[in-house]
Amino acid sequence: MRILDPYKIAKGVGWDNVSRRVWHAFSIRSGLLRKKLDPEHFREHKLPTKNISAEQRIESWQLRRQRFFRIPSSEELRRISPPEEWNRAVTAVCDAAIEGRYPFFSRWQGELGWPPNFNLDPVNQVRWPVGEHWLNFARSGPPHNDIKLVWESSRCTLLYFLARQFVYSSEDKWAEHIWQFIESWIEQNPVNESAAWACGQETSFRIMAMLTSVITILDCPCTTEYRLKLLELLCWQSAKRIQSNLNYAISQENNHALSEAVGLWTIGLLFNEFPESNQWCILGKKVLESEVRRQIYSDGSYVQHSMTYHRVMLDDLCWAIELGRKQGLEFSKTFLARVTFATNWLRQFVNASNGRVPNYGANDGANVLPLACSDYLDFRPILHLASMVCGIDSGLKDGPWCEKACWLSDPNRVISQKPSAPACHWEAPIGGYYIIRGPASQLFIRAPVYRDRPGQCDTLHVDLWYQGWNILRDAGSYCYYHQEKEIKEYFYSASAHNTVQVSTAEQMTKGPNFLWFDWPIATGQFCSGTELQCKASFSGKTPYRHARTIRRTNDDYVISDEVASNLKYKVRWRLMPEICWKKTGERIISAILPNAEKISIQFSGRTKNEFEMSLVDSWESLYYGEKRTCPSVLIENLSTKLDTHITIGKN
Q1: Residue 427 contacts by C-beta under 8 Å, 6 or more apart in sequence?
Q2: Model pTM?
Q3: Are 281 and 324 in contact (CB under 8 A)?
Q4: pLDDT digits (tens, 9 = 90+) for 572-619
Q5: 8 Å CB contact between 387 and 355
């Protein structure tokens, strides 16, 4: 370790988190955490409600349903999603799962059997150990590789599909499948002795899914007092597990703290027969209030620099707000204002025609509340829900994306605010986000001064959209761990973004795990509604400065790059793969869009033979664990200015 690394690590995790990280490391090495999480402290004989009568338990669950979210009727769901659409998006998923093909990351299926083998990684065909404390597990690397490949099934998001299918079809068989799933999960995952217990956030997501599904089928004959007691015990164990290591979640300074606080808030509100319930409520709300102030910037940007994690954050907070309102409890005005800011921030990026957003930042496949017949890439369900929760008109037409709000919000809520029409330019300077809009286009650029640790080398990355098509795009992040170093390092590198790269240097210096050192400093300034100037300085192993100016005329753009460095640089433009790009001139590439319009990209420098241009294959990942080839144009051997002229719609 170099002499400055401890300083950089401390800066990366956040100065106010250093003491928490030190205490966490000490707790592990000293055995204190293992002692606190000893499975013996979580056994059934310690359950506070173990001796109540069957009648009391059933009555408690009936009262619990009254304090939970409303369950929409079959008629409501059928009005939102017609049978053909429902069968494709929900019934087919449920049928496949019962046949043993479990849905992974809202995209692909893994063979887990039925009930699922929750500790099987279906990609690497590796079984994670059971009966051993989770503190013994490494989360990545051989022999078990990526822990997310077993966490995904234990998030239990399939239960939302089964519950929705039960309501839509009114068939009791789906209720029995829900209980088979839950009983099997409990049997396969003894408390604190499987990988599923290694993360408090995963524990919260699991309980949210189980409670939603069971309360949906509460009146079914298969919902017995014995089964309710099993889930009651699991909820008690889960809250104890979350509370025991909440300090570490807070030290991560990300959505883990929010999700775990939501878990405590939920169990505390719904299980007031537990003696710890009031303590869990108070702690959960306290953490939510403090973390929202810290994690959501005043311009609505989110601490994790990621569209996917922005959705997770809003899912967590909408759940917490609405569940509190069911009990007559509200969060502070500051809290609600920050959620409103975050909702309005997201609105700037969501394409109304298809719900797509830039594939920006870490994309770990998270869609923790899948309550709409919409693709994983469609952000309209969360935009509509969050708008409803905040009392804002979402500005969206009615469609399948409205279902999520039917499950989680009050359909009679008065909408008091209307969003303003999209402006020709917009900025969130604290987070470092800038947008220029044309009549049918939108260009987004990232120019941050990092307050919190970055995740990717994407400073001054540009995304270009036209009529809902992502013309110039981000590569995504694919997966957190991959055995091939080249693939593992590619997706967070400058090579995977539409920005410059000096020689072979990265924008930052890679640290351990998710940390980066030597953060860049960038600024953005609008000169007018059609011109934006961005500048960035990089202080890593190869210091340099980059200036990028964007000028718009209607839906045409000129992007000018200048780099101050003794080394030559290159520029990459990652292209929409659904159309055929061809080199149509010495320095021109062109393609025909799906609507038959032509798009051309032309490059010019200060001298005729200053650079080389080529079309190359690169990688793209829209869904976790899935990648495909994507065309890119690579401009190399640059030493002075490069102008990129983008012309759309002119043949």
Answers
A1: 433, 434, 435, 524, 526
A2: 0.96
A3: no
A4: 999 999 999 999 988 999 999 999 999 999 999 877 677 899 999 999
A5: no
